[in-house]
Amino acid sequence: MSTYWREKFEHTLLPSEKQLGLDSILQEAQDAYWGYLGASLMAFGGEADPVKLESMDRELNGENPMRVAANDCYDYAINGRLRLAKDGVEQTQMNDSWYRLAMVVLSARPAIEVFSPRVKGREMVLPTGLEYILFLSLVRARLDLDTHPKFEDQEAIPMFLSCEENIGYLTLKEIAALGQMSERAVRNAAQPTAADRLYTRKEGIQTVVDSEEALRWLKGRRGFVVTRAD
């Protein structure tokens, strides 16, 4: 499952050194939600009728769950903070929240591109930043599943993250994303003459970095925050 999400979101990556603010992410969450609803009505009914939009909104419990999920995703991907589920009820709510976010964002891009819905007098924007932080959350999860002790209890973390493959290494692109820096800067750090050298190895034709080494090196980068799960 995680490979599916990774492939879907990776093709729209923003430059890894681009700074993303929470306000813009929450606005994208709102636009993705309403854009998807509006496009769905246009696909089957011909127009994004405001009355029908409000009816759909009520049935889906409104946009607020999307904004909350986007906030949680941003907090983990960018700030390294993850709230752990304390019981089965919290686990179910957490899983529903993350998967709902992923499904709406995944559906929003083609819906908005094809139908360009106008909702409440606004054209909806593509959720580029949301796509990026969803991808980044999966990259961080891959690292945390290999190195963070609290990720051993996979029932406490969202299934969207725990299904990520903990294969023991990260690519240079993934390290660049976590460090909020360019891939070129990461490649330069892997040179033998680098002051704080990043040690790499080959995995087939890919240049990769073992997870423990990736974490060690990332801890020295200003753009990276070590995960805190509680």
Give a structural overview.
By secondary structure, this protein is mainly alpha-helical. It folds into two domains: 2-162, no CATH class; 169-224. Helix content is 57%, strand content 8%. It has helices at residues 2-10, 22-45, 50-59, 64-77, 88-115, 128-147, 159-162, 172-179, 183-189, 211-218; strands spanning 81-82, 118-119, 122-123, 169-171, 201-203, 206-210, 228-229.
Largest sheet strand order? 4-6-5
- Using DSSP, what is the number of strands? 7
Q: Number of domains in the coordinates?
A: 2
Q: Oligomeric status of the shown chains? A: single chain
DSSP summary: helix tally: 10
Radius of gyration: 19 Å
Structural class: mainly alpha
User: Could you report the average pLDDT, rounded to the nearest whole number?
Assistant: 88
Task: Report helical residue fraction.
Answer: 55-70%
Low-pLDDT stretches are none
Strand content: 5-15%
> What order do the SSEs take from the amino end to the carboxyl end, as H and E?
HHHHEHEEHHEHHEEHE
Form type: globular
Could you give a short account of the major beta sheet? 3 strands, antiparallel
* Ends apart, CA distance between termini: 25 Å
Question: Brief overview, please?
Answer:
The chain is mainly alpha-helical and 230 residues long. Helix content is 57%, strand content 8%.
